[in-house]
Design a protein that fits this description.
With 421 residues, the protein is α+β, with helices and mostly antiparallel strands. It has 15 helices and 16 strands. α1 runs antiparallel to α5.
């Protein structure tokens, strides 16, 4: 027998009972972005592998272990995108979006990383991202954080998420700090795990982000980056904190919060939850002034964030949401009624564009049609039979209330539904 066809491990179907929550999140994000003046950009799923090697770095776990990379028929090395920022910057450079311009952009879609699937962390995962270009002040960092907070409020998640912030200073300050950090960890080599030993030579800041419980005491005692910052970087961070406090945003300064890539500078932040176990970060972002320059463009200030859609949907699933159901289900008996039912359904969709109108398709007794109307959750069954066609009326059966069935003239059915929706 042929092998049973199944989805690839770590890549999941999103079935109709789950898509309403995805749509709720996507719609809420689109609304917030419109409020703040952000424009949507859509990038390809496949990019040149060199883009991610140059932006993320060849000695990172993403590039070394996790990317889906292949040679196409022309011999070019291509990769499924593991994140969205590099693609967004590539698009901006290619189409001249950054030259003497301010850009506020957002995007959504699937990303791909070959790692061990866990709850809320899959090989095909979805992100919503925000990227801002051409603004160097702390106010744009505050705006991005405020946007995410507004989204949490709109989704009813604000009380479940905690904001953590930190500053990475400038590249020069961070380089000096790396030397201090490496010297500290070299004094405690016997306490470093395998990953941290490897990162000591390639990406020492990422050691601070280790989740290994055995290393937490060592990490807590490590020198702090903020002690290596100059006056200008310290003032930038204090300004951001002031903006957040003025807006009533509660936050925690986490000096161990880092980004391991050299193009990051100044502010980094995360929104975390305790409701999802180990996968507690649902949104992360920061300033990355060095990336456009790193990819061949003119040095341009930039700030962004990315949020994990799967993790946010898991949080939304823990809440009660009204089920989206159609307003009416049209049933009929006989060929003349079938023709009239098709026209009635289209007319009602014109008159009630926000409501669901479901037309029964196929054969079946009225009893079986009523069962289907009840199963989809419709509020009313609209009935067309021989008598209704002759009298130019529609019979209405109340499926959710104990009311007597009634008849309404055909040309008044839309008004009835508007008044009873």
């Amino acid at each position: 027998m042929s092998k049973k066809l199944q989805a690839i491990r770590g890549m999941h179907d999103i079935l109709p009972d789950k898509t309403p929550l995805w749509q709720r999140l996507e719609k809420a994000m689109s609304t917030v972005c419109q409020q703040y003046g952000y424009s949507e950009i859509r990038m390809p799923l496949v990019e040149s592998t060199d883009l991610f090697c140059r932006s993320i770095g060849e000695v990172t776990d993403i590039v070394e272990k996790e990317m889906y990379t292949f040679d196409d028929r022309n011999g070019d090395s291509l990769s499924l995108r593991p994140e969205g920022t590099a693609s967004c910057v590539r698009a901006g450079l290619e189409h001249g979006l950054f030259y003497n311009q301010v850009q506020r952009l957002w995007y959504q879609g699937p990303m791909f990383r070959h790692e061990r699937p866990q709850k809320g962390r899959y090989r095909q995962f979805h992100q919503i991202g925000i990227e801002c270009f051409g603004m160097s002040g702390a106010e744009i960092e505050a705006e991005v954080i405020l946007m995410s907070y507004r989204l949490w409020k709109n989704l009813g998640l604000a009380s479940e998420l905690t904001l953590e912030i930190n500053t990475l200073g400038t590249l020069e300050e961070r380089t000096a700090y790396k030397d201090i950090l490496v010297a500290y960890f070299k004094q405690h080599l016997e306490q470093l795990d395998e990953d941290s030993t490897r990162r000591l030579a390639t990406n020492p800041l990422r050691i601070l982000d280790s989740k290994n419980p055995a290393m937490q005491t060592l990490i807590e005692s490590a020198p702090q980056l903020i002690d290596s910052l100059g006056e200008q970087s310290t003032q930038h961070f204090e300004t951001l904190q002031g903006y957040l406090m003025d807006a009533g945003i509660r936050f925690k300064h986490n000096p161990r919060l880092v980004r391991g890539l050299d193009y990051y500078s100044h502010t980094v932040f995360e929104w975390t939850t305790t409701s999802l176990g180990a996968q507690g970060t649902v949104c992360a972002g920061g300033r990355y002034d060095g990336l456009i320059d790193q990819l061949g463009g003119k040095q341009t200030p930039a700030v962004g964030l990315a949020m994990g859609v799967e993790r946010l949907v898991l949080l939304l699933e823990q809440r009660e949401w009204p089920e989206a159901t159609p307003l009416a289900y049209i049933v009929y008996q006989g060929e003349p009624a079938r023709k009239e039912a098709i026209q009635l359904a289209e007319r009602l969709r014109d008159q009630l564009p926000e409501e669901g109108i479901v037309l029964h398709c196929g054969s079946g007794s009225l009893k079986s049609q009523f069962k289907k109307a009840d199963k989809v959750g419709a509020k009313f069954a609209l009935i067309l039979g021989e008598a209704e066609i002759e009298e130019n009326k529609v019979s209405i059966k109340f499926l959710r209330d104990r009311q007597e069935q009634q008849q309404v003239p055909n040309n008044q059915i839309d008004a009835f539904l508007k008044n009873n929706s």
